């Protein structure tokens, strides 16, 4: 192959991807897919109706205003990423030429975790990760995959360090409405000193169960957002018009009824809370140890006590990768291995966990229930 | 010193926050070190941002930015509505990252016909958020720091910033006008590359050349001979070709659009970019694609999966159905790909007549829905300002929007900084507009002409 046709240096090593690997394997329709995070429930009808209305308006099928993504990070910068992390953060940081610096959430109760709240950052360890090269820290709350909802005190620790070291905060809050009873989502941008250094990210896909619309947004001070606008105008330029219009209409509908329990932001989290509880129950009955999340629609599960022996599996992959592949093949149930969400140093720590997605319709969870109830009857 | 500044800033904000529940936006309170990455240097200005705003504020007739003001075809919007209301609500969720299977399948079938080779929908086709994102993936995947990329002027403005953002160096080569000797109106075919000049731009650092045919803004449709020349140089110097063919269906006067990827030695080194927005008059749907060999597309897939990752599902579903219809009706009179260029050719001719009638000299485009006109006769209306940092045509276009309510785009917007002052007497019009719009444009021009002759 001629030299010229080699890939650029910026994408070196970024070609493999957990989703590409596992969506292929789980694509078989006979498999109950609790892996990739997408709802198989219908979005609210008024959201679909708004889009249908909009599609009939001719001018909404053409370009809209250009701005509707970050280049605040450059070569030589360091970016702090909390592990486990949504997998795209690491390659995106690397593609920007910067160095990811990892810090793990650690389980408080010495490995015996029943709730996402048990997973915390060590303040001293976190402080040590900040230095003069630290350009930004990525925060994800509610957290994928653990489902942790950072408390005000935890956010304050992060904020204090950001201010002390003049660091940016990229706050991924796509699951902001999916917070369960007794918990509150707090926006780090509202803490003193944080508005001017935070970019807050949101998603229509997660808010309205329309991941296929691929609409998201960034909120922040003008002087930061204007740099995102420059990147945006040089990459995508605009986002699909009819979808933005329909989303705007849907937001107005729910904005007007924010105090009403029927508001989708509240009704969805109620619906998901009962699915969460059902999923946790089923997993416990099958002898697994779920970590019940305070937010989001994922649940991580410790599978080590099942003692499934996979030492004969040849591949040099972490235990959880091998476990999930075995589970797909022999139990017809899919999930995602947690070490996909870790940096190189912590893979050992997290390889006994797998992640389930529970934003699924009842019949999907019924099918999962059958598999889990019969789990012990056919040990592989 | 820095620490003290930091503390007092925090103090300042705490006071402001006490009553409100949240921080207010303060212009003074910023990060103290430079925020933006160096890769953004020099690419913050964008002609569209500036002119779209002006047109929105002042224009009565907008022939500026390139988008149709007529409706998309019914069969396409109906496909969209059907997808929405149908049983399959999973169309609201993520589809395959590299392209919705029905869409990549029909694209592969279509381009197999057009390129004369078998295509694998999974590896030879990828869907992107508009052709814009396809171009972004090409440059990010294939252009490294220090690589040179040849860009033919005038060029669609995004090529230059995208090359720079990838760390590459753009090398420009102009199309040069050779006016016909008989005094007839120029055609876009009269703008040509000088073969020796083009050859001189290829060096050992040249990674790629960007080809845009049919060409925006001139409307030039490169001939087989011209493409052959470019292909020869690509093969000789082992250079890649990024071929932007978004206007592939908008070709007039019986001309043929030739795909450079079908030329000898070119398939393996060419990425061909296409657009549903231009093909089906739905620029707002932002569905585009690339077609090419797996060994090039694999790298575009890496960029795509680490940036946008998926494209909107419903729009892809509807575009797939649009293409299925066109495959069935290929070459027939009812085909949209036959009807649209026919309609646009009439509009082109109408605008040409209109501009010629008032003394602006249009260059008749062989393709696209743009035409460029020489405004030298109207120069007296807008006096030249010596030592102004803006090229003349920019000032003219801005003045025309504000005082005549007619929006067009200055041609020097499509040139590199170094060559902006070479062609400052031209502006670009978009004629993908309804009859009423073109009529209104004509009225403005006629009135303007009358004012000139009577004053």
Task: Describe the protein's architecture and organization.
- The complex is a heterodimer of chains A (380) and B (455).
- With 380 residues, chain A is α/β, with parallel strands linked by helices.
- Chain A contains twelve helices and 14 strands.
- Chain A has helices at 18-25, 45-55, 89-95, 123-129, 152-164, 204-207, 222-233, 241-255, 264-285, 319-331, 347-350, 362-373; strands at residues 32-33, 78-83, 99-104, 106-107, 119-120, 134-140, 168-172, 198-203, 216-219, 289-291, 298-302, 333-334, 336-337, 353-357.
- In chain A, a hairpin with a 6-residue loop joins strand 10 and strand 11 (298-302).
- Chain A is globular.
- The termini of chain A are far apart.
- The model of chain A is unreliable at 64-70 (pLDDT under 50).
- Chain B is α/β, with parallel strands linked by helices and 455 residues long.
- Chain B contains 14 helices and 15 strands.
- In chain B, the strands form four sheets. In chain B, strands 2-10-9-8-7-3-4 form a seven-stranded mixed β-sheet, with helices on both faces. In chain B, strands 11-12-15-14 form a four-stranded antiparallel β-sheet, with helices on one face. A two-stranded parallel ribbon of chain B has the order 1-13.
- In chain B, helix 3 packs across helix 11 (313-328), helix 5 runs parallel beside helix 6 (159-165) and helix 12 packs parallel to helix 14.
- The N and C termini of chain B lie far apart (67 Å).
- The model of chain B is unreliable at 1-29 (pLDDT under 50).
- The interface between A and B is large, with 87 and 97 residues.
């Amino acid at each position: 192959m001629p030299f010229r046709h080699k890939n650029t240096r910026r994408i070196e090593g970024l070609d493999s991807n957990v989703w590409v690997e596992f969506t292929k394997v789980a694509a078989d329709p006979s498999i109950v897919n609790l892996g990739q995070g997408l709802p198989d429930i219908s979005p609210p009808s008024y959201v679909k109706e708004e889009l249908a209305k909009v599609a009939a308006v001719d001018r909404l099928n053409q370009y809209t205003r250009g701005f509707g993504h970050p280049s605040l990070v450059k070569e030589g910068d360091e970016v702090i990423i909390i592990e486990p992390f949504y997998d795209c953060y690491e390659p995106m940081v690397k593609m920007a030429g910067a160095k990811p610096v990892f810090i793990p959430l650690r389980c408080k109760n010495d490995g015996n975790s029943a709730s996402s709240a048990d997973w915390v950052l060590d303040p001293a360890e976190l402080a040590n990760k900040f230095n003069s090269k630290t350009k930004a820290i990525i925060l994800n709350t509610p957290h994928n995959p653990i489902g942790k909802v950072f408390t005000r005190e935890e956010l304050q620790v992060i904020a204090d360090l950001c201010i002390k070291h003049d660091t940016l905060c990229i706050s991924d809050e796509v699951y902001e409405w999916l917070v369960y009873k007794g918990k509150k989502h707090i926006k780090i941008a509202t803490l003193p000193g944080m508005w001017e250094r935070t970019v807050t990210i949101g998603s229509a896909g997660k808010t309205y169960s329309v991941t296929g619309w691929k609409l998201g947004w960034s909120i922040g001070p003008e002087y930061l957002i204007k740099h995102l606008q420059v990147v945006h105008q040089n990459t995508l330029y605009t986002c699909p018009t009819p979808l933005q219009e329909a989303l705007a209409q849907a937001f107005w509908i729910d904005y007007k009824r924010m105090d009403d329990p029927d508001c989708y932001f509240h009704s969805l989290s109620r619906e998901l809370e009962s699915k969460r509880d059902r999923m946790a129950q089923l997993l416990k009955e099958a002898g697994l140890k779920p970590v019940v999340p305070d937010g989001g629609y994922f649940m991580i599960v410790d599978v080590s006590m099942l003692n499934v022996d996979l030492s004969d599996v040849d591949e040099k992959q972490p235990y959880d990768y091998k476990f999930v592949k075995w589970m797909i093949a022999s139990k017809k149930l899919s999930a995602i291995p947690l070490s996909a969400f870790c940096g190189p140093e912590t893979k050992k720590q997290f390889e006994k966990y797998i992640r389930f997605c529970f934003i699924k319709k009842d019949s999907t969870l019924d099918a999962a229930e059958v598999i889990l109830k019969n789990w012990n009857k056919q040990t592989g | 010193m820095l620490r003290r500044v930091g503390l007092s800033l925090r103090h300042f904000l705490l006071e402001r926050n006490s009553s409100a529940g949240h921080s207010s936006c303060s212009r003074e309170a910023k990060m103290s070190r430079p925020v933006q990455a160096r890769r953004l240097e020099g690419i913050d200005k964008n002609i569209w941002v500036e002119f779209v705003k002006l047109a929105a504020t002042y224009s009565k007739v907008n022939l500026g930015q390139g988008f149709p003001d007529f409706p998309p075809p019914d069969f396409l919007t109906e496909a969209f509505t059907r997808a929405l209301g149908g049983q399959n609500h999973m169309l609201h969720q993520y589809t395959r990252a590299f392209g919705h299977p029905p869409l990549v399948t029909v694209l592969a079938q279509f381009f197999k016909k057009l390129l004369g080779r078998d295509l694998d929908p999974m590896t030879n086709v990828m869907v992107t958020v508009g052709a814009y994102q396809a171009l972004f993936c090409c440059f990010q995947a294939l252009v490294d720091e220090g690589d040179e990329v040849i860009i033919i002027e005038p060029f669609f403005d995004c090529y230059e910033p995208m090359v720079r953002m990838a760390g590459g160096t753009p090398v420009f080569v102009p199309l040069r006008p050779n006016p016909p000797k008989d005094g007839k109106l120029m055609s876009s075919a009269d703008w040509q590359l000088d073969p020796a000049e083009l050859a001189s731009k290829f060096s050992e650092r040249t990674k790629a050349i960007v080809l845009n045919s049919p060409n925006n803004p001139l409307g030039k449709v490169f001939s087989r001979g011209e493409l052959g020349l470019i292909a020869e140089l690509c093969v000789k110097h082992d250079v890649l070709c990024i071929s932007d063919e978004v206007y592939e269906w908008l070709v007039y006067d019986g001309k043929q659009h030739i795909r450079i990827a079908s030329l000898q030695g070119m398939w393996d080194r060419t990425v061909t970019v296409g657009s549903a927005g231009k093909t089906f008059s739905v620029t707002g749907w932002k569905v585009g694609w690339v077609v090419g060999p797996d060994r090039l597309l694999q790298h575009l897939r890496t960029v795509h999966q680490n940036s946008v990752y998926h494209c909107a599902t419903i729009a892809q579903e509807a575009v797939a159905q649009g293409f299925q219809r066109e495959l069935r009706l290929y070459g027939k009179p009812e085909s949209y790909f036959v009807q649209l260029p026919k309609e646009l050719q009439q509009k082109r001719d109408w605008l040409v007549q209109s501009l010629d009638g008032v003394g602006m000299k249009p260059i008749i485009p062989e393709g696209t829905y743009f035409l460029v006109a020489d405004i030298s006769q109207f120069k007296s209306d807008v006096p030249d300002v010596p030592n102004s940092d803006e090229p003349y045509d920019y000032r003219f276009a801005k003045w025309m929007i504000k005082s005549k309510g007619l929006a067009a785009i200055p041609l020097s917007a499509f040139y590199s900084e170094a060559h902006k002052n070479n062609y400052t007497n031209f502006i670009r019009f978009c004629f993908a507009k309804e009859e009423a719009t073109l009529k209104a444009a004509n009225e403005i021009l006629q009135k303007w002409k009358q004012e000139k002759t009577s004053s």
